[in-house]
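Give me structure tokens for this 566-residue protein.
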Amino acid sequence: MSQQLEQATQLHQQGEFEQAKVAYQAYLKAYPQDGVAHEKLAVLFAQCGELPTAKKYLQQAVKLGLTQASTYNYLGNVCKQLGQIDEAIEAFEQALTHAPAFAPSYNNLANVYFLLGDFAKAKNYYLQSINLAPDYVDGLVNLATCHLKLDDLQQAKTILNKAHQLEPSHRKVCLLLGNIALENNAIEQARQYYEQANNDEIVNADLLNNLAACCIRMDDMNSAENYFLKIIQTYPDNLIAISNLAHLYFNMNAFAQAITYYNQLLHVPTEQYASHFQLGIIYMRQRKWESAFSHFDEVLKQNPQDVKAQINFATIYLKLGEEALAIKHYQLALSIEPANEIAQYRLATLTTQSMPQSAPKAYITQLFDDYAQHFDLDLMEKLNYRLPDLLYQSVEFHLPAGKQLNMVDLGCGTGLAARLFQKHTKQLIGIDLSEKMLELAEKKGYYDRLLCCELCVGLSQIKIASDLIIAADVFVYLGDLNQVFASVYQKLDKQGVFVFTVEQGFEADYFLQKTGRYAHHKNYIHRLIAMHSFERLDEQCISLRKQQGKEVMGYLFVLKKVSSSE
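Here you go.
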């Protein structure tokens, strides 16, 4: 190599691209027939993104007799980047003609067919590449990717495992193995692979989104948050990360942060609808009814057929004191989805339509999932809720002294009653329909077991007979109590105690009020007591809570199971 060409090559290798161009061109002016120099300058132009110029110099190198495989591979890759696929294929085939055992040529040709979507042909060329170079990790990765496109997950995994053994830190290998593990629900393994693939210097948004998803599934919300923030810090317009972070904050009840990111998404046409909906939910949970109204108004402008939005809109109107408009939107919801239980139930509370025997599961679940974060504060501070204390005081006298009890808390909520009764129990089981309420109850650590299901279903799942079953302010969501009385009687041990409250009613056996709660006539409760062989130990007329500044009255009953032998 001449000194002049060597100097140009050194400048190129040192990253001094502009100076290298000048040096190469000066050399070629003196030695225009040097094919190697043409190839070197072509590679430099390709590195600078000047692909048409790079192609021109490579073609000239070939004309000058430089017909080695590497030259044709350079030419093929440049043509592929230019979208000139037929010319790329021809160049890679020429490379194979001149060097049939050169693995990269097969790999490059396979890449073109992969780009064309001809995965079967691509796979064959990848296999030929691997046969020539079994330890060629990039080739193994490409072959595995091809198998993934052909839905051959197991073969792809086998190939990637081999690549991982050869190069454990290979980023693409770890990323693909992580994707496979995530798809197979192997969350911990997926996270391990993604963490191996993660590189602090290079932020891969897809990788970090998947890694954050694993963290969420493992209940590691702080790590998930950090990964999403890292993506956004590098790519501020990454919609997937912004949306995921907004949803994460929403599920963490970090509503201020969620609002920030949902507001960013409002400027994206494809994200407006979902973001308005989520913001409406947040403001409903915060009891900011006017703000919630404005967002659901936008939702319904875009899609009047959204049943959930119609129901939420109706609920907001109720909170704003607009009963007629609430009824209108519940009716609209039913016109779209006639079998919607929530709309049916709420209409029944507001009109003279037929009364259901109980509140639907979907209604209770949504009501208390939305209410969970405010439940303890609202009841204890704002509504003067003292039922747990009243239940404890009324039943304490009737419990066997010194005995540790098997106890069931029906409609346990966040565990307000459990804090008083726990010291008397050897096993305390809570049953509730709201997952959000049970999450809060679990954090308090009072319960030995928590069941998320309907009351009678939960009772049937408990194998041990109970000494005490309580139901504080639960039967307001059940009209007909016959089945629950039967289930409680069956689950109680001999001499077992059942203590509960109902809201005071004076119409028929039970009546569904506009509040969405049932009131029960005490004579109805007396008949159930006799029908199911209970003995009444205590009955009190009490204040259940305050509502709009007024006392809500009810009855507290303490019953004992009377077995047939007594």
